[in-house]
Design brief:
CATH architecture of the largest domain: Sandwich
Number of domains: 3
Helix content: 25-40%
Distance between the termini: 70 Å
CATH class of the largest domain: Mainly Beta
Strand content: 25-35%
């Protein structure tokens, strides 16, 4: 059956509509919210059908689709002639024993009278005992899920930033990187998501471990400092400066990896190869000190670092020799000076045009 039937009868007979009214959940809420937004003229029909179901139907007395159909056919037979003749409606509140008479317009009279006549017939069809039990049931409510508020720090290429989180943790976020977390969740569970590179100085809080999720790899600490480099499609590195951290790999049945100070772990892009090494703190944290360090660095990684650092795009006029790597150390230098220094060791010519860099390999 098409769930988008915009008549009261169609809605009451619709199993999906009844499920939504009596047993709402986020998926059903979204379905009928979308229906109402695309069919605004059906709001009154939906409200009327919903009121009928809430007043007279209950999961405590489930009906089959055939029974709904038989009841509705009975309603149509009883009400068709009367609906064409009424000019005044006698309103009988279903939860009071009083009768109140007031003049209304023809359209209002039809809608109000139609509703209560249907209710009366359904009441007779289902039995007085069913109606009495209605008051022992809680009123179904439609809970619309609230959107999750995310806090996002996003550094474009050429921009680095220093961030203080709500718990006192300090983060240096590298260029071309982003850090995010759910605001309400962070108060109870300190977990953040990283894309790119960042250095963390975690505020000590034994009751709330601090976890960084970077490409599915979780690094957890209590109070410590460490650097994570996790650019897309590149090897990931977690380098511990002080304290202790545990590292959990995605879909791994192995125990978590524990690092000691001055240890680093290198993880291949496919998360299959893992190696533990010592590291040079000056080299790992050079970016936090306005220094670029290339130590036999793959060309693709060096170019990505320069694009993020200076906010430019590189274009190769020809292909370099396979396996080309770059080495060099540059402190607070201009892009032109960096490329000038690399041109001798890497065998390349360059031309800078605003935010575009053209490279030709010798």
């Amino acid at each position: 059956m098409d769930i988008y039937n915009d008549t009261v009868k169609g809605l009451v007979l619709n199993p999906e509509f009844r499920k939504w009214v009596l047993n709402p959940n986020p998926e059903r809420n979204n379905t009928w919210k979308h229906y109402l937004s695309t069919n605004p003229t059906s709001v009154k029909d939906v409200e009327l059908a919903r009121e009928l179901i809430l007043e007279l139907f209950s999961n405590q007395f489930p009906l089959q689709d055939k029974e709904y159909k038989e009841i509705w056919d009975h309603i149509e037979t009883k009400t068709t002639k009367e609906d064409q003749q009424k000019q005044f409606a006698k309103v009988v509140p279903i939860r009071q024993g009083m009768v109140q008479e007031k003049p209304t317009s023809t359209q209002d009279s039809f809608q109000i009278g139609y509703f209560w006549r249907i209710a009366s017939i359904l009441l007779l069809a289902l039995g007085v005992g069913f109606f009495a039990s209605r008051y022992t049931l809680p009123e179904p409510t439609v809970e619309i899920p609230q959107p999750v508020k995310k806090v996002v720090f996003n550094n474009p290429p050429g921009v680095k930033s220093s961030i203080s989180l709500a718990d006192g943790t300090r983060v240096m976020l590298n260029a071309g990187s982003s850090l995010s977390y759910e605001e309400s969740r962070f108060k109870a569970v300190r977990d953040v998501f990283l894309e790119g590179e960042a250095f963390f100085e975690v505020a000590h809080d034994p009751g709330r471990p601090f976890t960084v999720n970077a490409g599915g790899v979780n690094t957890t600490a209590l109070g410590t400092s460490f650097n994570i480099m996790a650019y897309k499609d590149e090897k990931q590195m977690v380098s511990l400066v002080t304290g202790k951290v545990s590292i959990a790999l995605p879909n791994s049945k192995k125990e978590e990896i524990l690092l000691a100070p001055k240890e680093a772990i290198s993880i291949s892009p496919d998360k299959m190869l893992v190696s533990r090494t010592k590291f040079d703190e000056d080299a790992i944290l050079a970016w936090t000190r306005k220094t670029i360090v290339f130590e036999d660095t793959k060309l693709v990684e060096a170019i990505r670092a320069l694009e993020n650092w200076y906010g430019v795009r590189f274009h190769f006029q020809n292909q370099p020799k396979p396996g080309k790597r770059l080495s060099g150390k540059f402190h607070n230098e201009t892009l032109e000076n960096v490329l000038e220094g690399l041109s001798y060791t890497a065998g390349l010519d360059f031309r800078i045009e605003k935010d575009q860099v053209n490279i030709t390999f010798n």
